[in-house]
Design a protein that fits this description.
By secondary structure, this protein is α/β, with parallel strands linked by helices. It contains 10 helices and 12 strands. It folds into 2 domains: 132 residues, 3-Layer(aba) Sandwich (Rossmann fold); 141 residues, 3-Layer(aba) Sandwich (Rossmann fold).
Length: 296
């Protein structure tokens, strides 16, 4: 493999530091375009590759990460929870949320982090200001919703969770209350109680996959449930202009797409791996170029 140089992993790496995205599926992801763009801009001898790993091979994949000295990983659906038991250590961000989306190989020790919630919060506060003291309605109670729910609650928001299955929503609310000491309300989706709650909500966050390609005509909330003083944030970025965001604009509300969350959580992963601040603008431009390429 040529001249060898010590990497962050269990074995020595040969010149290039390798970073991976693992999940199933990973065919359409913006992450390689984003990370390879900043590696090039900063002249780092690194490469980022997406690898499809079926659930039954997850443990083997993590063993391979150790054996090959892979420097770091991003983890996506469906591995974010199961991978936790395969790691050596969990950062507070991962143990708090109960999921991992970033792994650092620190001289053979695999450490799990979660940058999803903080990434969403940074994106949101950059475009809509602080969430402290604001009434926030969060749609969903899955993995992304968990990360975002913990982050906005920790930042001081008044949080209400709306979900199809109430036991799951109640479990998330209970988890947030137990770990952060913050009260969280729960309401059913498609209910009069949700409509009533939205009348006074200042921020609506869709943390579900509803509206994602190919089901782009779907939305959980329509314009009659949205008011002009509300900010609507959709974590979906395929497409950037979801039906929910169109409904928000129709109601005169501020609408924010999900690309910012992807970029900022990626920037946080980059900082964990390299200790360097990522050029966020470069990441965003690379992601938008890749999206445009998909649509042509």
């Amino acid at each position: 493999m040529g001249t060898r140089a010590e990497g962050d992993g269990g074995q020595e790496l040969s010149r290039v530091r390798i970073f991976l995205l693992i999940g199933d599926p990973v065919k359409r992801t913006l992450s390689p375009a984003m990370f390879n763009a900043i590696f090039e801009r900063l002249r780092l001898n690194c490469v980022y590759v997406a690898v499809e790993v079926p659930a039954k091979f997850l443990a083997d994949a993590i063993t391979g990460v150790r054996a090959m000295g892979i420097s770091g990983l991003n983890v996506t659906i469906p591995h974010k929870i199961r991978v936790m038991n395969l790691l050596d250590e969990l950062d507070e961000s991962a143990s708090l949320v109960g999921a991992v989306n970033t792994i650092k190989n620190q001289r053979g020790k695999l450490i799990g982090y979660n940058t999803d919630g903080e990434g969403a919060l940074r994106s949101l506060e950059k475009t809509a200001g602080s969430v402290r003291g604001r009434r926030v309605v969060l749609l969903g109670a899955g993995g992304a919703a968990r990360a975002i729910g913990f982050s906005v609650a920790k930042a001081g928001a008044e949080l209400t969770i709306a979900n199809r299955t109430m036991p799951r929503a109640k479990a998330l609310a209970s988890d947030i209350e137990r770990k952060l000491g913050t009260p969280v309300r729960v309401v059913p989706l498609r209910s009069n109680l949700l409509k009533k709650t939205l009348k006074t909500a200042e921020l609506l966050i869709n943390a579900t996959s509803v509206g994602m390609y190919p089901n782009t005509d779907q939305t959980l909330v329509t314009s009659d449930m949205i008011h002009r003083e509300m900010t609507v944030y959709d974590i979906v970025y395929k497409p950037l202009e979801t039906r929910l965001l169109r409904e928000a604009r129709r109601a005169g509300a501020k609408a924010i797409d999900g690309l910012g969350m992807l970029v900022h959580q990626g920037a946080l992963s980059f900082k964990i791996w390299t200790g360097k601040h990522a050029p966020v603008k470069v990441m965003e431009l690379a992601a938008r170029r890749e999206l445009k390429r998909w649509n042509t």
